[in-house]
UniProtKB/TrEMBL annotation:
It comes from Streptomyces chumphonensis. Keywords: ATP-binding, Carbohydrate metabolism, Kinase, Nucleotide-binding, Transferase. Belongs to the anhydro-N-acetylmuramic acid kinase family. Catalyzes the specific phosphorylation of 1,6-anhydro-N-acetylmuramic acid (anhMurNAc) with the simultaneous cleavage of the 1,6-anhydro ring, generating MurNAc-6-P. Is required for the utilization of anhMurNAc either imported from the medium or derived from its own cell wall murein, and thus plays a role in cell wall recycling. GO terms for biological process: 1,6-anhydro-N-acetyl-beta-muramic acid catabolic process; amino sugar metabolic process; peptidoglycan turnover. Its EC number is 2.7.1.170. Pathway: Amino-sugar metabolism; 1,6-anhydro-N-acetylmuramate degradation; Cell wall biogenesis; peptidoglycan recycling. The keyword Repeat does not apply. It catalyses: 1,6-anhydro-N-acetyl-beta-muramate + ATP + H2O = N-acetyl-D-muramate 6-phosphate + ADP + H(+). It comes from the Bacteria. GO terms for molecular function: ATP binding; kinase activity; phosphotransferase activity, alcohol group as acceptor. It is an enzyme of class 2 (transferase). This is Anhydro-N-acetylmuramic acid kinase.
C-alpha cells in the first residue's frame, strides 16, 4: 500500500507529508520504503490564527470551528501536493495526525485529546480515504494516547542492551526497552516548546525559534531559574505519562522568571539546558546504553551538544542511522499507523501508553469512491526494514 503520512507538531511551523510504500510478509517483517518528504510551511495568517488559539489562550467556539476547517483545507492541499509530487497520483491512503491543540491530563491520567484539521477536507482535496484521530481510542482504553512513536520504535529498537529512541519535538519523548524486553515510553517534558516560547518572548514575537541555538550559545545558564523549572511536579510523576503545550507555554515560562528577569541569551541557554537535563536524567534513571534522536531539536546544535555532554559516554546518533531522517520520522510513523489500522492491526503499545490492551486506532473518512479495506494481516508485524526508493 502506498501511504501518505502527515502531521504538524507542537512547534506549529509546517506540515510534513511523507510517502511510504508499506508491505508485510507472512513472517511479520514489515518493509517501509521511503519515497520522499514534502514539508509545507504554515502561511503567516494561518500560523497567527493557530497561535491565537493555542494554550494558554481560551478561544471561542467560532474560532475553534474556523480553525478546524482552515487546518483541514491546509492539510488537504499539502496531501494533494504530496500525492502529485511524490507519488505521481498513485497514493492509496492518507493518514493525518492533524494539529494537536489540547491534550487534557489530570495528574497521571489523560482525560481527552484534541487534534484539529477536519479530515473531510483532505478526502475532498485528494479523493483518497483518510485515517485520522489516532490518539483517542488509546485514551478510551485508559492510555495516555502518547507517545505513539513507541509503535515504530518497538519495531526498530534492538533487543540487545537497553537502547532508546528520543524525539525532540515541542515535547521530548523517550522510548526504550526495559530489562524484560518490553517497550516503555513517555513524555519527558518540554523540548522546543519552551525554547520557542523564550525566543518569541525575547524577540517581541519576531522570531519563532532560536535558529541554530545561536542565542543559547551566547548565554549562560542561570542555576536558580533552572532549579525552579526542574521543580515542576510533572517530572516526579511515574510513567506512563504525557503532556503538551497546554502545560508548557509562554505564560508558564514567564511565571518562573525572577525579578529582574535574566538577559535574553541567558534565558535561552537555561531553557535549552532544561531539556538536556531532562534527557540526561532519564538516561541515567533507566540505565540506557544508546540513544537515537529525531525531531526538530536535532537541528539545534547547542541542544544536541549539551545532550551529548551530559549523557557521556552514551552513544548519541540521529535517526537517519536507522534509515529514517530525523525530520521525517514522525510523518513515516503516521503512515505506518494508518497502514496498521486499515489492515486490522492494533497500533498502540499498551506497555508504553498505559492502555488496558491493544486498540485499533483512528477514524476512517471515505475518499471519492467506495471504501474498500484490504484483507487483515494474518500476523502483526514484529520487525521493520527501512529502504529507500530504488533499493
Amino acid at each position: 500500500m502506498r501511504v501518505i503520512g502527515m502531521l504538524s507538531g507542537t512547534s506549529c511551523d509546517a506540515v510534513d507529508a511523507a510517502l511510504a510504500d508499506l508491505t508485510c510478509d507472512p513472517d511479520g517483517e514489515l518493509t517501509l520504503c521511503r519515497r520522499g518528504l514534502l514539508s509545507v510551511p504554515f502561511p503567516p495568517d494561518l500560523h497567527a490564527e493557530l497561535a491565537s488559539c493555542l494554550p494558554p489562550a481560551e478561544p471561542t467556539w467560532r474560532q475553534v470551528c474556523r480553525l478546524d476547517a482552515e487546518l483541514g483545507r491546509f492539510f488537504g492541499a499539502a496531501a494533494a501536493r504530496a500525492d502529485t509530487e511524490l507519488a505521481g497520483g498513485t497514493a492509496d491512503l492518507v493518514v493525518s495526525h492533524g494539529q494537536t491543540c489540547y491534550h487534557l491530563t489530570q495528574g497521571p491520567r489523560a482525560l481527552g485529546t484534541l487534534q484539529l484539521g477536519a479530515p473531510a477536507w483532505i478526502a475532498e482535496a485528494t479523493g483518497l480515504p483518510v485515517v485520522s484521530d489516532l490518539r483517542t481510542r488509546d485514551l478510551a482504553r485508559g492510555g495516555q494516547g502518547a507517545p505513539l512513536a513507541a509503535t515504530l520504535d518497538a519495531l526498530l529498537l534492538p533487543h540487545e542492551g537497553r537502547p532508546a529512541a528520543l524525539n525532540l519535538g515541542g515535547i521530548a519523548n523517550l522510548s526504550f526497552r526495559d530489562g524484560d524486553g518490553q517497550v516503555l515510553a513517555y513524555d519527558l517534558g518540554p523540548a522546543n516548546a519552551l525554547i520557542d516560547a523564550a525566543a518569541r518572548h525575547v524577540s517581541g514575537g519576531r522570531a519563532r525559534r532560536d535558529d541554530g541555538g545561536a542565542r543559547a550559545a551566547r548565554g549562560s545558564v542561570r542555576p536558580e531559574l533552572l532549579a525552579a523549572l526542574l521543580a515542576d511536579p510533572y517530572y516526579r510523576l511515574p510513567p506512563p505519562k504525557s503532556t503538551g503545550r497546554e502545560h508548557f507555554h509562554t505564560a508558564y515560562l514567564l511565571r518562573h522568571l525572577p525579578e529582574p528577569p535574566p538577559p535574553a541569551d541567558d534565558l535561552l541557554a537555561t531553557v535549552t539546558e532544561l531539556t538536556a537535563r531532562l534527557v540526561a536524567d532519564a538516561c541515567r534513571r533507566h540505565g540506557l546504553t544508546a540513544l537515537t534522536v529525531s525531531g526538530g531539536g536535532v537541528r539545534n546544535p547547542v541542544l544536541m551538544a549539551r545532550i551529548r555532554t551530559l549523557t557521556r559516554p552514551l552513544p548519541v546518533a540521529d535517526s537517519s542511522l536507522a534509515g529514517l531522517p530525523a525530520q521525517a520520522k514522525e510523518a513515516y510513523l503516521f503512515a505506518l499507523l494508518g497502514f496498521l489500522t486499515v489492515h486490522g492491526v492494533p497500533g498502540n503499545v499498551p506497555s508504553a501508553t498505559g492502555a488496558r490492551g491493544p486498540a485499533l486506532l483512528g477514524s476512517l473518512t471515505p475518499g471519492a469512491g467506495p471504501l474498500r479495506l484490504p484483507p487483515p494481516l494474518r500476523r502483526a508485524p514484529t520487525r521493520l526494514r527501512v529502504t529507500t526508493s530504488g533499493e
